[in-house]
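Priority: medium. Attachment 1 of 2:
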């Protein structure tokens, strides 16, 4: 159940959304641009064979970069204009709007707090062109196009899976493999007590498993196909999670920049994950 703190933040945020904003246009332009870019590259391929293997390292790099951006940019304040803006939008807005008490949206106007702005896709397009172009020069044109297609496809997968984490419960998100896994994984991440340190993947929790920032004690296959199963949650984290679901704790110990953690909680984070900082306030 939504706390009073979250409810007030939502009301304030929604009142600040421009009347000109249209959520369907927002995602329509994003998906149209992404699909068009992939289609263009696909039409330029010249009977690729072994070049399709470039999907694998591009996918793995994308998963690691997704994890690193989430942990070290979206949840760590870096006082550089663009990076600070990402941090503000994610930690100070997205994580106040959605907590594990209520992670869902009710209307398309709320897409503004779910999907990245168009400029992120533009930046990805530039980076994809550079990386794909270098691959073209070093390997061949097919490899370059496939790298670019994989990068854009990964981004669109990210946005789609993230959206599925924030819609109301339905048959699809409950039963679709990978989607149900990331929905539970991401809902757990939205707990205000552990949000700065655990469950950083938004697509497939591969990097979280590899780098020990998952709230689960499972192997890689178990992580990927965990679904809604909560049997493997690290027991040490459960008291922290429960504590930060209450309105009283949120009012006293939660800030826009993250939770104020006690020494015992910090020790728990260090013991069960890759959390190594010693500061009490997540910054």
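Attachment 2 of 2:
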């Amino acid at each position: 159940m939504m706390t009073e703190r979250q409810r007030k933040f939502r009301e304030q945020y929604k009142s600040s959304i421009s009347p000109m904003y249209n959520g369907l246009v927002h995602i329509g332009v994003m998906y149209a641009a992404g699909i068009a870019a992939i289609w263009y590259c696909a039409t330029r391929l010249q009977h690729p064979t072994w070049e399709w293997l470039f999907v694998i390292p591009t996918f793995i790099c994308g998963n690691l970069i997704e994890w690193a951006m989430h942990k070290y940019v979206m949840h760590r304040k870096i006082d550089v204009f663009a990076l600070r803006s990402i941090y503000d939008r994610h930690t100070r807005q997205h994580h106040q709007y959605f907590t594990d008490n209520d992670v869902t949206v009710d209307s398309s106007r709320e897409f503004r707090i779910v999907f990245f702005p168009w400029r992120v896709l533009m930046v990805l397009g530039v980076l994809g062109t550079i990386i794909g172009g270098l691959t073209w020069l070093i390997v061949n044109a097919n490899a370059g196009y496939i790298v670019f297609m994989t990068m854009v496809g990964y981004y669109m997968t990210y946005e789609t899976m993230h959206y599925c984490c924030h819609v109301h419960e339905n048959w699809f998100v409950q039963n679709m493999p990978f989607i149900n896994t990331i929905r539970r994984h991401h809902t757990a991440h939205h707990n205000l007590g552990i949000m700065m340190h655990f469950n950083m993947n938004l697509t497939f929790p591969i990097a979280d498993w590899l780098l020990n920032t998952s709230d689960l004690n499972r192997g890689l296959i178990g992580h990927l196909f965990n679904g809604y199963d909560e049997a493997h949650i690290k027991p040490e984290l459960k008291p922290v999670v429960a504590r930060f679901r209450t309105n009283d704790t949120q009012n006293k110990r939660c800030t826009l920049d993250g939770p104020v953690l006690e020494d015992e909680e910090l020790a728990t984070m260090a013991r069960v994950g890759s959390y190594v900082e010693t500061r009490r306030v997540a910054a």
